[in-house]
Amino acid sequence: MTNAASSPWAIPVAQVAQRPGQSKEIDGDFPAPSGIGDRIVGVNEGEPVHVSGSMDSIVDGLVFNAHISAPMHAECTRCLKPLSGPKELDLVAFFPYEYQHEGRDFKGDVEIVAGEEEAGDGNTYPLADSGNVADIEALLRDNLVEAMPLKVLCKPDCKGLCAQCGINLNEHPDHHHEIRDDRWDALAGLKARLEAQAEGTGKE
Ligand SMILES: [Zn+2]
Ligand SMILES: [Zn+2]
Q1: Average pLDDT of each block of 10 consecutive residues along the chain (204 residues)?
Q2: Residue 173 Cα to ligand 1 middle (Å)
Q3: How many domains does the chain have?
Q4: Ligand found nearest the CA of 81
Q5: Which H/E stretch holds residue 187?
Q6: What is the pLDDT of residue 187?
Q7: Structure pTM?
Q8: CA-CA 20 to 30 A from 193: which of 52, 118, 161, 180?
Q9: How much distance in Å is there from the Cα of 73 to the middle of ligand 1?
Q10: 98 lies in some domain
Q11: Spatial separation of the C-alpha atoms in residues 91 and 110, rounded to whole Å
Q12: Ligand 1 centre from 152 Cα, in Å?
């Protein structure tokens, strides 16, 4: 057992790696990585993220096709109603046997150039433990972070909360406040006095 293999996100792939045509079914829960969203919209670290799919071996790597279901917590940005529920997404990722990143191949083989286009693809990840382990921590984090909505509404026309008292305007559509501001009374009084003065001086 190496550190890579004991990671909670490790998927052992030794049976299928380097064997084109072989496929390994994935169906299980993985802990949510840290850093997905925030307190308003996100997935809490350690919550179970269900991953189902397959690792399919092709000539130059493993193709990971997966359906992800993550327990997302969220609240409406206007009325703060809790809107928790599963966030579902499908992803395809690639674990090349020869991984290149920023011009350096992790096996030190400088002749490999095919990895260059893969390095530019956001969903390409290196295999760990000499190619025996696919660690999906970074993959889950990247894909879930990207999937988090920037703005969540309980419904498209959510009326939000009353700015004065905070009451939910969806539940009280006729709610309003009689706004009476004494400052207008004071200004009206001043205006009347000024007008009276102007008339007085004009007639003089
Ligand atoms: Zn709302
Ligand atoms: Zn109000």
Answers
A1: 80 94 97 94 97 96 97 95 93 90 49 44 87 96 94 94 95 88 76 85 53
A2: 13
A3: 1
A4: 1
A5: helix 182-203
A6: 80
A7: 0.72
A8: 180
A9: 15
A10: yes
A11: 30
A12: 8
Enumerate the H helices of 88-136 as residue ranges.
Answer: 115-119
Residue 180 domain flag: no
- The token pair at 174 is 């006729």
Ligand 2 is an ion; its neighbours by CB within 5 Å are: 162, 164-165, 167
| Owning domain of residue 75 | 3-147
Ligand number nearest to the C-alpha of 152: 1
Give a yes or no: residue 153 inside a domain: no
Q: How far is the CA of 88 from the centre of ligand 1 (A)?
A: 21
Q: What's the CA gap between 198 and 195, in Å, rounded? A: 5
pLDDT recorded at residue 199 = 81
pLDDT (tens digit per residue) in 125-170 = 999 999 999 999 999 999 999 999 988 999 999 999 999 999 999 9
Determine the pLDDT at residue 113.
45
Neighbours of ion ligand 1 (CB under 5 A): 76, 78-79, 81, 154, 158
The encoded tokens of residue 39 equal 């307190």
Give the ligand with the smallest distance to the CA of 153: 1
With respect to residue 193, please indicate whether it lies within any of the assigned structural domains: no
Q: What is the number of the ligand closest to the CA of 160?
A: 1
